[in-house]
Amino acid sequence: MIMWPVLCALRLGTLLVEISFSSAKSTGPRGRGDGCGHTLLGPDSGTLTSRNYPGTYPNHTLCEWQIQVPEGKNIFVKFGDLDLQCTSDYLKIFKKTSSSITECGTYCGSLNLDSREIHIDSNEVSIQFKSGSHISGRGFLLSYATSSHPDLITCLDKGNHYDEPQFSKNCPAGCKAVIGEVSGDFSQGYRHTSALCKAAIHAGVILDRLGGNIDVVQHKGLSRYPGILANGVLSKDGSLSDKRIVFNTNGCNQPLGMELGHIAEHQINATSFWQWTDANGQTVSWSPNKARLNVPGPSWAAAEGESQQWLQIDLGDRKCLTGIITTGSTLPSFHFYVETYKVSFSKDGQKWKTYKDSNNNVGQIFKGNTDYYQLTRNNFIPAIFARYIRVIPQSWNQRIAIKVELIGCQQIRSITGNKQKPTHPIDIQDKENVNSTDPVITNDINYGILLIAIVVPFVLLVVLTILGIYTFKSLRKKKTQDIGTSGQKTACWKQFKQSFKRPQSTEFTINYSHEKEILQKLDVVRSDSSDIYCTAGGHLPHYVQTKI
Ligand SMILES: *[C@@H]1O[C@H](CO)[C@@H](O)[C@H](O)[C@H]1NC(C)=O
Ligand SMILES: *[C@@H]1O[C@H](CO)[C@@H](O)[C@H](O)[C@H]1NC(C)=O
Ligand SMILES: *[C@@H]1O[C@H](CO)[C@@H](O)[C@H](O)[C@H]1NC(C)=O
Ligand SMILES: *[C@@H]1O[C@H](CO)[C@@H](O)[C@H](O)[C@H]1NC(C)=O
């Protein structure tokens, strides 16, 4: 049984007023109370569940989440699952504005897995979950995004929920920690039973922290799917399936030549290496040149008792790096591997930058290997644009030992989406590195063109956006007035979709995805910590982390 309220009742908060907006911000984006489960409230989208989901939630618990998206945007909530006992438990959604709190709905019972969407015409929403005494119930999982993402799916959606040979969806932030199996890998695709958003994180198409658009193509299945740890998600070995899903990306994911030898011996260096003489008097050298993925023999290994070791690779010229694959010693008699590492990069081999976690601006720690022989992949989102790269082990088993392959491409894409010739990369220095006495650009770059390329589309976009918002607002105002005169007061409106396979105007999708791309680019332009050059994944923001 589901109780869907007919209208939003005005509620001048008893329970909710006590939670001030500012305290919600200062304690960080979490739920408040002992009934909160997995929660990730990203800047534009997020995911939240009841405690223990999908296990039974506890008796007598409470959780309240405050959700806020950028001003001027509306929130769009989508249930992935709901199973609450109506006798004692409920979920309430409140719309918040600066002056009022309005109840949008009380939810309990169970959903029959069809999507349930709620549009709220405010950028702030409060969600409250309360349980009394009950025997069973999985609780709930829901996602939200700004209403500019009507293609939002939840973390529970799987490839086999869709029949279309090709489709685009929007993943919310926070799917990595949600239950759901992923089977396969980026290169050949995933078993169609894989959880879509989690597979997209595994593939390096989206970041868990942000979510984003995914473009999926369905292909004929494989007889077997490999399991590999990638971006912190472990995919499992999978068996034969009818179909597999492949993520469309820009193709910047080619091996850059550690394995095939395009990167020569003199281009690989390290702080130290291990060598010893075996029983036959032969020197066994774990030199930097041994750090080549899939090449038999020992790996690079650091000399003993050294701290702050690194392995450095010179790519010859600046390239777009979108990922790295690592393994350990690969020799059964040496259980050496690097468990975690940092990455730094440089354009000249002199000035180095640590790859930062864009969330908290500290050096990102990548999860490396968990044994001496399996491969682990990490993607750089945003991509790195550099000539030199260092892998700096942070923790390891027995001894630092690693083989690597770098993934990326020569292709560079400017902010306007034009492909640049690799020999003439665009080069903008970080603000912090710009010296008033130094010329900012040393390469042969036409700044005027660059400026026009950035500023003109930007101004155009701003004008278009303002026009759009204005039109939208005036339309809405008109609508509200109409409703007002007919005596109805709907603060929020719900939309019940019958099925995942809802028909959709392709025109709308096309225009929407275009708009989305533009919005991402705009965000990027505003971001100080990022420059914009090579594309990282499918629909990732078109920029690289930093350039030196
Ligand atoms: C809630 O309490 C009731 C009665 O004490 C008990 O039977 C039930 O198992 C409890 N439910 C949960 C989920 O702990
Ligand atoms: C390799 O690194 C070592 C240690 O930092 C340094 O002394 C040496 O000059 C480097 N060699 C090359 C070819 O860059
Ligand atoms: C800026 O210039 C000063 C002196 O000209 C120099 O000492 C400093 O290292 C420069 N800073 C950067 C970031 O290049
Ligand atoms: C959406 O794009 C199509 C062409 O791709 C165009 O014909 C249509 O007018 C556009 N719709 C809007 C609302 O801009």
Please write out the topology.
Blueprint: H1 21-26, E1 31-32, E2 36-41, E3 45-50, E4 62-68, E5 75-84, E6 90-96, E7 101-107, E8 109-110, E9 116-120, E10 124-130, E11 139-146, E12 166-171, E13 184-185, E14 189-191, H2 196-203, E15 212-220, E16 224-225, E17 229-230, E18 233-234, E19 238-239, E20 243-247, E21 254-255, E22 268-270, E23 274-277, E24 283-286, E25 300-301, E26 311-327, E27 337-346, E28 353-354, E29 366-367, E30 376-397, E31 401-409, E32 412-413, E33 419-420, H3 447-485, E34 492-496, H4 506-526
Parallel strand pairs: 17-30
Antiparallel strand pairs: 1-4, 2-3, 3-11, 4-10, 5-8, 5-9, 5-11, 6-7, 6-10, 9-34, 12-15, 13-14, 14-20, 15-20, 16-19, 17-18, 21-31, 22-26, 23-24, 25-31, 26-30, 26-31, 27-28, 27-29, 27-30, 32-33
One 2-acetamido-2-deoxy-beta-D-glucopyranose (NAG) binds at residues 507, 510-511.
Kindly describe this structure:
This protein is mainly β and 548 residues long. The chain folds into 5 domains: 33-146, Jelly Rolls (Sandwich); 159-248, LCCL-like domain (Ferric Hydroxamate Uptake Protein, Chain A, domain 1, Beta Complex); 255-409, Galactose-binding domain-like (Jelly Rolls, Sandwich); 442-501; 502-548, no CATH class. 14% of the residues lie in helices and 34% in strands. It has 4 helices and 34 strands. The strands form 7 sheets. Strands 17, 18, 21, 22, 25, 26, 27, 28, 29, 30 and 31 form an 11-stranded mixed sheet that branches. Strands 2, 3, 5, 8, 9, 11 and 34 form a 7-stranded antiparallel sheet that branches. A 5-stranded antiparallel sheet has the order 1-4-10-6-7, with no helix packed on it. The longest helix is centred in the last third of the chain and has 39 residues, at 447-485. The radius of gyration is 26 Å and the shape is globular. The N and C termini lie far apart (59 Å). Residues 1-28, 414-446, 478-491, 493-533 and 535-548 have low confidence and may be disordered. One 2-acetamido-2-deoxy-beta-D-glucopyranose is lined by residues 56, 58-59, 133-135.
